[in-house]
């Protein structure tokens, strides 16, 4: 069986990466209070501008985002994901993930999961225009690994990106109702009919 997996909010909670990034910024600027400020204000569009003004930090929003994206995160693989990967390690596992390439590679390294996968596709390796739901990385998998619709299952969390092309291929899709997009409702073929709250239900 082939399993095509998303990364953020599928195999681990993306919020844990965000908390790691906030802690890194607090340590980088040697302002412990900064960590709690960022947690409290993270959903405000002006969060980073407010942070710079409040703590009189000589930096820019662009530099703050760069620091977050390039830090080595302190994140861990949840127990359920570990059980799933171990259970299916004799199957063909594929990882397909959006996001800044350096950031995603650092996450994969921190989670220590690369050895489970037959192929890892960080869409940003090819350029931002190749991010999901663009079909390119799925075409790469089909061309190189001959994925058949009756033998391929896709697991993701974001209906804006994870299921459109796989469902056009006829692959069976499962949406994990967790993370940033758990309450987002879209119509088929963006969303999928199989919805679960645990990866171990698949």
What does this structure look like?
- This protein is elongated.
- It has helices at 14-28, 33-41, 47-55, 61-70, 79-87, 101-111, 136-145, 164-169, and strands at 2-5, 92-97, 119-122, 152-156, 172-176, 194-196.
- It is 39% helix and 13% strand.
- The protein has a six-stranded parallel beta sheet with strand order 3-2-1-4-5-6, sandwiched between helices.
- The protein folds into two domains: 2-13 and 76-201, Rossmann fold (3-Layer(aba) Sandwich); 15-70, no CATH class.
- The two termini are 13 Å apart.
- The model has no long low-confidence stretch (mean pLDDT 97).
- It is built from eight helices and six strands.
- With 202 residues, the chain is an alpha/beta fold.
């Amino acid at each position: 069986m082939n399993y095509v997996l998303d990364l953020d909010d599928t195999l681990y909670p993306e919020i844990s990466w965000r908390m790691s990034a906030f802690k890194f910024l607090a340590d980088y600027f040697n302002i412990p209070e900064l960590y709690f400020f960022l947690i409290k204000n993270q959903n405000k569009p002006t969060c980073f501008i407010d942070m710079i003004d409040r703590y009189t930090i000589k930096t820019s929003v662009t530099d703050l985002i760069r620091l977050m994206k390039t830090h080595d995160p302190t994140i861990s693989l949840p127990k359920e994901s570990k059980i799933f990967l171990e259970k299916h390690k004799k199957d063909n596992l594929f990882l397909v993930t959006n996001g800044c390439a350096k950031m995603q590679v650092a996450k994969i390294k921190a989670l220590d999961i690369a050895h489970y996968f037959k192929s890892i596709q960080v869409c940003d390796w090819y350029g931002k225009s190749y991010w999901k739901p663009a079909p390119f990385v799925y075409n790469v998998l089909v061309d190189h690994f001959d994925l058949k619709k009756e033998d391929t299952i896709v697991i993701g969390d974001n209906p804006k990106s994870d299921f459109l092309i796989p469902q056009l291929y006829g692959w069976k899709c499962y949406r994990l109702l967790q993370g940033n997009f758990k309450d987002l409702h879209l119509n088929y073929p963006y969303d999928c009919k199989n919805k679960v709250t645990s990866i171990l239900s698949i």
